[in-house]
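Design a sequence for this backbone.
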């Protein structure tokens, strides 16, 4: 049976916005990651030259309301299969660089 690791986040993104960043700057020409859309809001990610298997699935949740202000809420599931912990850490380091919002 393959070794699997599931990581879940809630993020302040709309699903289409998330996909645009994932398929654009995150996995662009200067990236070792290659993203392929499997289905709407479901991607596979591979890393060139590595044993790196990742599926990403997102689900939009009801927005958070702060007075008249609404923030999108996106449930993001990262399902790694037979992927070394060091490769997962490297992925999340790059992921947070490209998906971080806000100042500071």
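Sequence:
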């Amino acid at each position: 049976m393959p070794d699997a690791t599931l990581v879940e986040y809630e993020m302040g993104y709309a699903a289409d916005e998330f996909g645009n960043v994932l398929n654009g700057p995150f996995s662009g020409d200067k990236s070792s990651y290659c993203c392929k859309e499997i289905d709407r809001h479901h991607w596979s990610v591979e890393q060139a030259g590595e044993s790196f298997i990742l599926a990403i699935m997102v689900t939009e949740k009801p927005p958070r309301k702060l007075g008249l202000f609404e923030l999108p809420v996106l449930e993001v599931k990262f399902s790694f299969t037979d992927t070394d912990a060091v490769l997962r850490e490297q992925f999340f380091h790059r992921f947070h660089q490209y998906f971080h919002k806000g100042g500071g």
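The first strand starts at residue 4 and ends at 11.
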